Amino acid sequence: xxxxxxxxxxxxxxxxxxxxxxxxxxxxxxxxxxxxxxxxxxxxxxxxxxxxxxxxxxxxxxxxxxxxxxxxxxxxxxxxxxxxxxxxxxxxxxxxxxxxxxxxxxxxxxxxxxxxxxxxxxxxxxxxxxxxxxxxxxxxxxxxxxxxxxxxxxxxxxxxxxxxxxxxxxxxxxxxxxxxxxxxxxxxxxxxxxxxxxxxxxxxxxxxxxxxxxxxxxxxxxxxxxxxxxxxxxxxxxxxxxxxx
Length: 245
Description:
This protein is an alpha/beta fold. The protein has 5 helices and 7 strands, in the order βββαβαβααββα. Strand 4, helix 2 (about 95-110) and strand 5 form a beta-alpha-beta unit. One of its GO terms (molecular function) is hydrolase activity.
């Protein structure tokens, strides 16, 4: 089953020469969460990554590590994207680390492809969480999900939906909490976070600079950890500033 799904009509064979934007969701997330960006990215191919265990990949097994997930994404993207057209990988929260690892793989696979990486709402990769929620019971896991995103509290009060979605969330937490980075960099890196984000250590965010070997930028936007939820378009508007017109 394909992990990369189109999120706009521009993501088709007829537009392969256009710059591409690929979004890597947060833990427990789906590309559908970012579908409202499509109207702000009409000039670009807009793709989303579906992790195993949800949507059309409900029966797919979770990779052994976050790096293995990134390698699988990179292999699919390397054959999907045009080698000469610019591509921008944008990941939020857990997706930030998946996007950064995927970019490292893609740079080795096709060095000539112009590639930008944007990491949102996440600490640098040498700052792993000191939690083991993937080992805790369902109540503890749901409490943490609701703490980060109270807007979806009603979903987690539905036993049938919990049974459907919670296994994928637990697997994502496992990938996130067992991730241990190996030294490396990407060429072009941008860090974005909400000014009221309490899920990140703002004193540590500057260390993302060490994960870039050439271009480094940072931008602070209004809001908390889920500042980019619908209907907010501040992040896709900023991405347009980074992409060729």
